[in-house]
């Protein structure tokens, strides 16, 4: 039974079909990657699934429930969250506070207890702090906990965004190029982290340009080109698919033309 | 010496009003980066509605509550009808919208109420209290106390409660706030309601001293803005300190130089802050990362 299902999703920007009739499904604990050349519509697809854009056509289902075009904050409450290619971090908060913000949904208590700093409120805050620390350790950022987030390196911020997403105990996690701009060591770390998350039962949808990483960790790959799904299957199936090769390397004629 | 003390008392009283206006600026600025120039109109509405409901025969506390409540509703309406539809517009456009809203509210007040100046009776008599060789009106203590109370309340709200922190998170990064499940639209509405309520409270408290008319908002917005700039835009501590300081500057200028220069103080403060320390007293230097 799939937890996330995308059916015939499409959107146009001023007459240009950015994404057209894309369908696929993700099961709990599965890593599904969306790949395709630049401008294929991968991020647009992500934006539609996560409620940032309103799809022109098609539907998105989370645990069988229609969640099409639902606002991101509602999706977060239902267990679907994401990271962004260009990072959405609370720059002026510390690293730890960023993750604490992720616990925002589970932290809720009576407002008077918070205002008067009652023991129950302090206990709750303490638990959240510990939880946030644990997550930071998991993404190896525990040493930077008290630093202002804006001062971190790009690779570290990528991991911070993942830690913050995990604070919500998501069922589905959308990762938009988590390894972009990371060095080889960082990429391997993120690689291991994603595999670990999937093993814990989270359904992962991934957009990534690092093909080695995609081939290594994905259970299933969806290939987009010019907004259309041109292939899907296991890494081996996809890498042998002639359409995919053509999309990435140019078609036979074009290659021939280039040769001539 | 006695004269100095007297100037300080009157400066703190006016300053407390500026501080309340500046706090109102701070809340909306924090939630949306918008400087809401209709903030002065909230003060005017607070005073005017109280006067009219009071004269209609309601007890003063009830009249004040109604005024605060109705003004909050106006604040929410301002957000829903003018700011929210323009979401995505540059901040400068949003600021101009608030100027338009302030003109509209002033015009409406002129029609709904009238063009006269009105006053309210003081809350606890007009018998001056002798203190430190000078005198202070009981109403001044109400104003100063009100400002301090609002400040402490806001401080606790923003540092301790989840909703307060959610407002700050919304200001910091709207998209990231949505990702962690914060209803950012609601946080905006809440900010406008809160900010309008604080403005209205200032109007209620100060009307027995300074009188209220449909057009008092412009000067108050300008001075509250100067106070917020002086303290550091977006910082509640700065709003309080900036308000009180500006009030003191004005009172001392009026007392020792000439009361004719009093009105110029706010402008001089704005210019000086922009030239010398644009981040204000408590503001942090901001660096944009590209």
UniProtKB/TrEMBL annotation, chain A:
Keywords: ATP-binding, Nucleotide-binding, Transport. The keyword Transport applies. Signal peptide: none annotated. The keyword Nucleotide-binding applies. GO terms for cellular component: plasma membrane. GO terms for biological process: D-alanine transmembrane transport; L-alanine transport; L-isoleucine import across plasma membrane; L-valine import across plasma membrane. Pfam families: ABC_tran, BCA_ABC_TP_C. GO terms for molecular function: ATP binding; ATP hydrolysis activity; L-isoleucine transmembrane transporter activity; L-phenylalanine transmembrane transporter activity; L-valine transmembrane transporter activity. Residues 4-251 form the ABC transporter domain. InterPro entries: AAA+_ATPase (IPR003593), ABC_AA/LPS_Transport (IPR051120), ABC_transporter-like_ATP-bd (IPR003439), BCA_ABC_TP_C (IPR032823), P-loop_NTPase (IPR027417). PANTHER family: AMINO ACID ABC TRANSPORTER ATP-BINDING PROTEIN, CONSERVED COMPONENT OF ABC TRANSPORTER FOR NATURAL AMINO ACIDS-RELATED. This is Amino acid/amide ABC transporter ATP-binding protein 1 (HAAT family).
TrEMBL record, chain B:
It is a multi-pass membrane protein. One of its GO terms (cellular component) is plasma membrane. The chain crosses the membrane at residues 6-27, 60-79, 91-113, 140-158, 179-205, 211-231, 238-258, 264-282. Belongs to the binding-protein-dependent transport system permease family. LivHM subfamily. This is Amino acid/amide ABC transporter membrane protein 1 (HAAT family). The keyword RNA-binding does not apply. It comes from the Bacteria. Keywords: Amino-acid transport, Cell membrane, Membrane, Transmembrane, Transmembrane helix, Transport. It comes from Celeribacter persicus. It is found in: Cell membrane. GO terms for biological process: amino acid transport. GO terms for molecular function: transmembrane transporter activity. Its main location: membrane.
């Amino acid at each position: 039974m799939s937890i996330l299902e995308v059916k015939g999703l499409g959107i146009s920007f001023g007459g240009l079909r950015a994404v057209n009739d894309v369908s696929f499904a993700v099961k709990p604990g599965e890593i599904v990657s969306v790949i395709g050349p630049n401008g294929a519509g991968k991020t647009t697809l992500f934006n539609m699934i996560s409620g940032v854009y309103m799809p022109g056509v098609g539907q998105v289902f989370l645990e069988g429930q229609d969640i099409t075009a639902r606002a991101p904050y509602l999706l977060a409450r239902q267990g679907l969250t994401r990271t962004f290619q260009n990072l959405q971090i609370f720059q002026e908060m510390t690293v730890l506070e960023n993750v604490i913000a992720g616990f925002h949904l589970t932290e809720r208590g009576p407002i008077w207890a918070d205002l008067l700093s009652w023991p129950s409120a302090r206990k709750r805050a303490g638990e959240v702090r510990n939880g946030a620390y644990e997550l930071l350790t998991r993404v190896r950022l525990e040493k930077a906990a008290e630093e202002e987030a804006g001062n971190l390196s790009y690779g570290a911020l990528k991991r911070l965004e993942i830690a913050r997403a995990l604070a919500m105990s998501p069922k589905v996690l959308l990762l938009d190029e988590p390894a972009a701009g990371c060095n080889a060591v960082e990429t391997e770390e993120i690689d291991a982290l994603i595999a670990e998350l999937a093993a814990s039962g989270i359904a992962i949808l991934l957009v990534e340009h690092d093909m080695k990483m995609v081939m290594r960790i994905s259970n299933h790959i969806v290939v987009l080109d010019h907004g259309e799904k041109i292939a899907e299957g296991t890494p081996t199936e996809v890498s042998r698919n002639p359409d995919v090769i053509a999309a990435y390397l140019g078609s036979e004629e074009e290659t021939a033309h280039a040769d001539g | 010496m006695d004269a100095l003390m007297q100037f300080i008392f009157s400066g703190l009283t006016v300053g407390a009003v500026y501080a309340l206006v500046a706090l109102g600026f701070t809340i909306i600025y924090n939630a949306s980066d918008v400087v809401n120039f209709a903030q002065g109109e909230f003060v005017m509405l607070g005073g005017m509605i109280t006067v009219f409901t009071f004269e209609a025969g309601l007890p003063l506390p009830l009249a004040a509550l109604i005024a605060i409540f109705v003004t909050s509703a106006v604040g929410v309406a301002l957000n829903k009808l003018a700011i929210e539809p323009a979401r995505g517009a540059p901040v400068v456009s949003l600021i101009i919208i608030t100027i338009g809203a302030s003109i509209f509210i002033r015009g409406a007040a002129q029609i709904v109420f009238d063009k006269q100046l009105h006053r309210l009776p003081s809350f606890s008599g007009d018998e001056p209290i002798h203190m430190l060789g000078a005198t202070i009106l009981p109403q001044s203590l109400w104003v100063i106390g009100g400002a301090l109370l609002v400040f402490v309340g806001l401080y606790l709200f923003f540092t301790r409660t989840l909703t307060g922190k959610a407002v700050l998170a919304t200001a910091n990064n709207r998209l990231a706030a949505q990702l962690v499940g914060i209803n950012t639209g609601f946080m905006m509405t809440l900010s406008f309601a809160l900010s309008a309520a604080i403005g209205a409270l200032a109007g209620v408290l100060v009307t027995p001293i300074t009188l209220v008319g449909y057009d008092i908002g412009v000067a108050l917005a300008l001075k509250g803005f100067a106070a917020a700039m002086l303290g550091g835009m977006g910082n509640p501590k700065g709003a309080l300190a900036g308000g009180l300081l500006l009030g003191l500057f004005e009172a001392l200028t009026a007392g020792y130089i000439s009361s004719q220069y009093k009105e110029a103080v706010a402008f001089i403060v704005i210019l000086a802050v922009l030239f010398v320390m644009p981040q204000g007293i408590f503001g942090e230097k901001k660096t944009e990362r590209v």
